[in-house]
Every structure is written in structure tokens, then in C-alpha cells.
Inverse folding.
């Protein structure tokens, strides 16, 4: 058995336990959300200014592509489209599977509709004559606000993308993740499992929103350094309730506003893939 085949088999076993159908909540009102990303030992997910870095080793990358097959949608922010130009498909599979696997639905959050017409997500669905390259590869769904440029929307839809307008959060003007998941989970879209892959703003937004069910983090034995892009803004993670140096003159309400409400991890498991360690956990939020 080749190294790739062995890694693929190990990934299948590892992920089947995590995403067993027996764990599905049939009373769930929204899609199951998995948040996943790869980080260095110093908690960096990209280089300076968000520059793309290859952090995961080949074996854990096989695991990530396998995990995509357990979901019917893969979600990233527009920043990831610009920095990585991803395809968001499951490619590192066994040869027989590559030809038959139904690819997940690419989902992009883009409040200003900046999505580039040159993106791989558009190139991979059309031939030069306009016909489809591969019927298994789906055109991207782009979610934007009502402040988008209608002419840009027309160009994107002509290129094969589907554009959806959703609500924004009145507090910060960002796209409403609650409305997003409601839209994705409801007919006619009807997705049941969504894999969120980044970037850092998307990771933080989903974690602090209470909408993540499963966390899968790949930790690579490398250091990126201080110029790299961190997973979190550490300054925003301080829980002032537990800070002995917190300003005692602040009211409880003021302190509470500074707590993002990040979750606890339960049912934690670890698995080594090549040189990387993959951690999986269910997330529990305070009610």
C-alpha cells in the first residue's frame, strides 16, 4: 500500500468516527458546521499580510481533502479567495474516488462583491467555449449584502457564479452568519453539513457566534514568526472576569461586553498524520 493510500485509509477511519451519522441531531434547525484550519506551533495560519503558506504536510492535507467529502459545502471569506485563489474541491483521494466523488458546494462570503472574475472557482467550471468542464464541480455561491454593485453581480452570474443577498449584522455591518446558515439550510439550497476553512476573520466570527459544532485543527511542527498572520487577535481574547488586574471600577456589564464568549472543547481526540497533529473536538457554548 502506498503512503498516500495508507494516509487516505487512516483519514477515512479517523473522520468516520467524528462525522458518524449516529451523531446527527435530527431536530437540528440549521446545517452542522465544522470549523477547520491549519496552524504553526506559534499559532500562525499565513505569512506577512496574509500571504499564503503551505503549513500542512502531505498526509494531513490528504485528511483535509477527505474531510471535504463528509460535507456538502465549503465556506471561505473573500480574503481567502484573493490570497489563496482556492478551488475548494476534494482532490487528494484514491484514484477511483476522484472520478466519482460528488464535489462539495463552494461558498464565499463577500459583502462588497469584490470576487475576481479570474478566480479558479470560475475557471474550473467552464471551458473556453462556455461548456461545463466537469459536472461534479459546482459553481461558487457568493453571499453578499444589498450594497453590492449590480453590474458586478451581472458579470459574475454570466461567468457561472450564483449570487445571494443576505442580511447584515446591525452591530458591525458584517454579513449575518445566522441568516447565512438559515438560508443555506433551507430549501431550495438545503445543505446539511458545512465546512468552514477561513481566513482569520471568518474563523473568529464563527467561533464567537456560537454557530460551530465541530473543530478540527491541524498543528504543524513549524514556526512562522512574528510577522505571520495569527489565528486570533490575542488582545481580544482576554476574559476580564478572570483578570486579576482588571479595572475594579468597571461595571459588570462593561466587563461582560469585552468577553467574546469563546467555547469549551469536549470529546477531544488527537491523531498524527505524518509530522502533523490533528485535533478534533466538539464545541460547547455557555447557554
Amino acid at each position: 500500500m502506498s503512503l498516500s493510500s495508507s494516509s487516505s485509509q487512516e483519514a477515512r477511519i479517523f473522520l468516520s468516527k467524528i462525522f458518524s451519522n449516529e451523531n446527527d441531531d435530527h431536530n437540528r434547525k440549521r446545517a452542522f458546521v465544522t470549523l477547520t484550519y491549519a496552524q504553526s506551533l506559534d499559532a500562525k495560519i499565513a505569512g506577512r499580510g496574509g500571504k499564503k503558506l503551505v503549513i500542512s504536510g502531505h498526509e494531513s492535507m490528504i485528511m483535509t481533502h477527505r474531510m471535504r467529502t463528509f460535507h456538502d459545502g465549503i465556506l471561505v471569506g473573500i480574503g481567502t479567495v484573493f490570497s489563496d485563489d482556492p478551488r475548494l474541491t476534494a482532490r487528494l483521494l484514491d484514484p477511483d474516488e476522484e472520478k466519482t466523488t460528488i464535489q462539495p458546494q463552494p461558498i464565499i462570503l463577500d459583502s462588497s462583491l469584490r470576487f475576481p472574475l479570474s478566480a479558479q472557482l470560475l475557471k474550473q467550471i467552464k471551458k473556453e467555449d462556455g461548456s461545463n468542464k466537469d459536472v461534479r464541480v459546482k459553481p461558487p455561491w457568493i453571499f453578499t449584502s444589498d450594497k453590492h454593485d449590480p453590474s458586478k453581480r451581472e458579470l459574475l452570474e454570466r461567468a457561472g457564479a450564483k449570487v445571494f443577498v443576505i442580511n447584515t449584522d446591525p452591530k458591525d455591518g458584517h454579513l449575518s452568519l445566522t441568516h447565512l446558515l438559515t438560508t443555506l439550510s433551507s430549501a431550495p439550497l438545503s445543505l446539511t453539513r458545512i465546512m468552514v476553512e477561513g481566513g482569520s476573520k471568518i474563523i473568529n466570527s464563527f467561533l464567537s457566534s456560537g454557530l460551530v459544532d465541530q473543530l478540527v485543527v491541524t498543528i504543524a511542527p513549524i514556526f512562522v514568526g512574528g510577522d505571520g498572520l495569527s489565528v486570533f487577535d490575542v488582545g481580544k481574547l482576554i476574559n476580564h472576569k478572570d483578570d486579576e488586574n482588571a479595572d475594579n471600577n468597571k461595571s459588570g456589564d462593561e466587563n461582560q461586553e469585552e468577553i467574546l464568549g469563546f467555547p469549551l472543547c469536549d470529546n477531544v481526540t488527537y491523531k498524527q498524520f505524518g509530522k502533523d497533529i490533528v485535533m478534533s473536538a466538539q464545541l460547547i457554548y455557555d447557554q
About this structure: Residues 91 and 200 are 24 Å apart (CA to CA). The chain has one domain: 3-20+30-276.
